[in-house]
Amino acid sequence: MSAPLPASFADAQRAIGLALEQALAAPAATDPVLAAMRYTLLAPSKRVRAVLVHLAADVCGDRSRAMPAAVSVECIHASSLILDDLPSMDNAPLRRGRPSAHIAHGEAVAILAAFGLLNLGYGHLAAAYPAPLAARVTTLYADAVGLDGLIAGQAEDVLATDAVIDFDTLERIHRRKTGVLFSAAAQAGAVSAGASDAAIASLTSYAKNLGLAFQIVDDLLDVVGTVAETGKAVRADARKTTFVSFSGVDGARELATELCATAERALEPFGRRADPLRELARYVTGRRS
Ligand code: GRG
To answer: Is residue 280 over pLDDT 90?
Structure first.
């Protein structure tokens, strides 16, 4: 099931949803860990990272090998959501419009499901791609998750709860927590299409700025959004420094708009072929979910 992205991405979202179903197919999900993995992975989601893999591959001229990288990035992302929601992290009760995994399945099973999804994410690449491409995309994703990526960003974020941090620290946290997986998704799509180093560099610059803008809008939606729109608890960031606490609602929106404009400028070498990526950037600044 999909949450709203612009209509032009609906076909990609649908195909990604089907591929995720297949990656985690189970006639009867009796295993509790498998049930929790399916519960999170197949819940309504925008699938924006997987769509980005496809759009990056497309603009580099070949979408045919994008799907395994798209499936993998969604597995990794779903794993991170389960961990992020745990009582020891954000202690979030709702995700994707449903009780969070640890509430629906218990904390122990939720933690194992997060490991299961991470494992599936990497294993899927090894099973689906020829060895050199599998190695390249696995390295991209492992670097994005690792000690200069999601894990580092999450650690700094959790440790900064109730602390005063400066703007550079906030930006570093969010680039690592959110931005790097967007960059890795775009790079994976490009690499799967056999793109040149120059094309990969342009897409990295696009995705890096898009990812940070996406996180700023996430902060904004915590303040101005509703549970019905976001599928998660709102006003949940009260103990954290966010882009809104630094810049206010209007300032944060302006910053997200500027970052998306910077992202769009990185697409110039691709000409009109990159219009879908431009559309994605415009969607990000105005998104409500
Ligand atoms: C071992 C994978 C792994 C991670 C460990 C827990 C952790 C480190 C990192 C947390 C990263 C995280 C959850 C960042 C928040 C990113 C974010 C903006 C999530 C919401 O993404 P959407 O809006 O959600 O794309 P949907 O539900 O549409 O997919």
So the answer is: yes
Mean pLDDT of the chain: 94
Residues framing ligand 1 (Cβ under 6 A) = 3, 45-46, 48, 76-77, 79-81, 83-84, 96, 118, 145, 150-151, 154, 177-178, 215, 218
Burial 23-34 (b: 16+ CB within 10 A, else e): bbeeeeeeeebb
Nearest CA to ligand 1 atom 5: 151
Q: How do 98-99 and 94-95 pair as beta strands?
A: antiparallel
Q: How far away, in angstroms, is 250 Cα from ligand 1 center?
A: 24
pTM flag (> 0.90): yes
Q: Please report the domains of the chain, with CATH numbers, ordered by start residue.
A: 7-286 (1.10.600.10)
Q: Are 149 and 176 in contact (CB under 8 A)?
A: yes
- pLDDT tens-digit readout, 217-267: 999 998 888 888 888 888 887 788 888 988 899 999 999 999 999 999 999
